[in-house]
Write a structure and sequence with these properties.
Length: 775
Amino acid sequence: MPVCADDGRHTVSIPQTSLQAALKMLGRQTGADIISTEPGLDIVHVPRVSGKLSPQAALDRLLRGTGYHAIAIDARSFRIARDAIVVRARRPVAKLATAPSAAGPAPVIIVTASKQRISLLRYPGSLTTIDAGTLQLSAAPRDLANVARMTPVLQSTELGPGRNKIFIRGIADSSFAGAAQSTASIYFGDVQLGYSGADPAIRLYDMANVEVLEGPQGTLYGTGSIGGVIRLTPNAVDLDQAGGSVEGGVTVTRGGAPGYDVGGTVNVPLDAGVIGVRATAYSVRDGGYIDDPGRGVDNVNRSSTDGARLALRVDPGGGWQVDLSGLGQWIDVRDAQYADRLTGPLARRSYIAQPFHSDVALGRLVLTKDWDSGLQLLSATGVANTHSNDLFDATLRPAGGGEGPQTPIVTYQTEGAKLLLTHEMRMSRSLANGTSWVAGFTLLSNRESQNRSAGVLGMPMEIIGVTNVTRSASLFAEGTVTVVPNVSATLGIRGTLARTDGEPSFRPRTDDFVRGRSTRRIDPTLAFSWRLRPGLAVFGRVQTGYRTGGLAVASGIGRVRDFRLDRILVGELGLRRLRQGPTGLSLQAALSYARWKNIQADLVNRRGLPYTDNIVDARIQAVEGIADWVPVRGLNGKLAFLYTHNRVTGPLADQSVSANRRLPDTPAFAGTGSVGYEWRAGNESVLSVGVIATYVGRSVLGTGDLLDIEQGDYATFGLNAAWVRRGVTTTLTIDNAADGRGNRFASGNPLTFAVRDQTTPLRPLNARFGVGLTF
C-alpha cells in the first residue's frame, strides 16, 4: 500500500477503468473501506486519477461526472450513492443529456462500441468485456490469441504471433491467412487496424479493456464484421496528473527456454487540463520449447516482440478534443512452433529454420466535439501499414523418415504488404428518456499485395502473386427509441458502394479471371431490449453482413481467378442480468442462428500451395453464457461457455466424413471457469489467489478431406496469485499446471502437413513471476 503522508494523503495511481474496479484499487491503495449497494458500477467508466490525495479527494475525482457521489461515514469509510440529478459527464465518460423523468435518473452510458453510448442493460446484443485487471493476471503472451484461450466466444488458430486468425462465435472461414477479408474486424479505439489476413498480435500493454461485440455488425461497422468486432481501448492521456507505471516479468517453461517481458508507460501533462502526452514501450521474448534433433538445435520456436505507442491529447475548450497517436510493433519468430508425431510430442525434423517476421505501424487522428444537449460529433482517420514475410521448408522427406534429404533443399517464401486508409465521421445523441441515434459515413481504401517464390535453397524462382485494391464508401444510421415503458426498439441501415480491382504479379497462363468487381449492399438491423425489472433484461437482434470479393491465386501454380462476396444472416435472443450491489450474480446468455452463404476461404491444395475460393454454405446454431458470482465479499466465481452446432454443405465438404463436415477451428463445446479470493492483510497489503480451468473441444483444421484433421479436445488449468503493497504489485501465474500435451492446431508447415502428422502442442508447464510499480 502506498505510504500515507502525515496529512492523511496517499500515493494514488488508478488507470482509466470501470468504477467498480477503481473503487477496489482505491481501497487497496489508501486503506479506506468503500461500500455501495448501487447496481451497475462495473459498467461505469472513470478517468485516470493519480497523485498525493486523501481518500475523499480521490473519490471526488473518480466520481466527478459519473452520476454518483461519496458519503463519508468516518475518516476512512465511505458509501457510494447515486446522484439525485445526473450531471454532464466529463471526458472520457460519454456525455449524457438530462431531461425531467418520473422514473428517476437516466441510465449510465457505457457501450461506446455501439456508437450510440447506450447502457449495457439496454444494449440489444451479446457483448464480452475483458478488463485491465484480467489482462494483467493472464498468462503470457498478453495478446488477442491469449485472450481467446480464456474467452470461449473467441477462437484462434495457432500458427504463432502475427500469423493467427481470430474468430468470434464460430464464424470461421479457414485456418490459413490469404486474400479473403477477415471475419472479425479489429479496431484500435475508433480506427480499424487491419482489413484481411492474420491478427497483428498487438501486445495489450496500458489497455483499459478489450470489447468483443458479436456479429454480424454490418450496419455500424460494414464489410468484414460478419463475425463481430474486437475493440482494443488504450488508456487515454490524462491531462491533469503526471504519472506512469513499469512492469516486468520472467517466464520459465519446463524443458524449454526462459522468456521475459518488460513494459512501461509515462503520462505527462504539458499544460494542465489542455495538452498532454502518453507513451508506452515494451519488449517481450517468448522462450521456445520445440526441439529439432535433425539439425541438432533445441527450443527453436523463440519469438521476440518489440513495440511502442505515443499519444497526444489536446483539449482546447468549447467541447472540442483532439487525439493524435501512433504505434509500431515488430515481431521476429526464429522458427515455426509445430511438432511431428514421428519425432516426438515436442520435436520435429526439418532441414532448415522456418522464420517469420512482421511489422505494423498505425497512425490515427480523432476529433470530437460535445454539446451540452448530448450531441456529439466524431471524426476518426487512420492509416495502417503492415509488412510480413515467412519461409517454409518445402523439401520432400525421404521414404522411411531418414536423416538426410534425398533431393536438394527446397524453400517456399511469401511476402505481403498492406496499406489501409480509413475515415469515419458520425453524429450521435443519447437522451435520458432512452432515445439515442447515430448517423455517419465511412470511406475505406485498402491495397494488399502477395508475392511468392519457391525453389532450391539460394535460387528461388518467383511464382505468380496478386495485388488487390479495394475502395468503398458507406452511409449508415441507427436509432433506438422507447416503444413502451421498459421496451426499446433499434432500427438501422447501411448502404455501401465498393469496388475491388486485382492484378496478377505477371501474366497468368489463363485469362479466366475478372480484374474488377463492383458491389452494392444494403445491411439492415432490427433489435429490441425489454427490461423485465431493475438489472434484468431480455434482448433480440437480427442483422446481416458480408465480405467483398477479390482476385486470388487459384488452385495450382500460374493461375489466378476471382472470388465473390459472401453474406451472412444472424438472429439471436438473449438474457442479461446485472449484479445489484457488491454481492450477487451477473450473467449473460444467448441463443443464435446463422445462415452463411457462398463462404470465402483461404485454402491449400495437395501440394501445399495456397489459393482462395468460394466453397460452401453453412448453418450455425450457438448457445453461449457468461456468469459472474460474488457470494460474499472477496470471493468471486466466473463461468463462460460456448456450444456450437454447425453443418457445412457443398462439394468440398462432401469429401469429408459426416462428423467432420464442420467449420474449421470451432469446437462443439469450449468453456472456462475460475474461482478467486481476495483479502486485506493488515492496513497496507491486499492478497489474492485464484484458479482457472479451461476445456477446448474437438475441432477440425478445415473443410474437405485434405483438411479434416482433428485437433483440440484438451483441458488445462492454471493458478495465479497477487500481492499489492505500497504501490507495488507482485504476481505469480502458473499455466498448464498439469503439463498437458494437447494439440492446439494441426498445422505448422502447409507445404508438408499433408502427411497428417503435424501438431502444435501446448506450451509445457510454465510459470511467470512479475513485478509492477505505479507512480
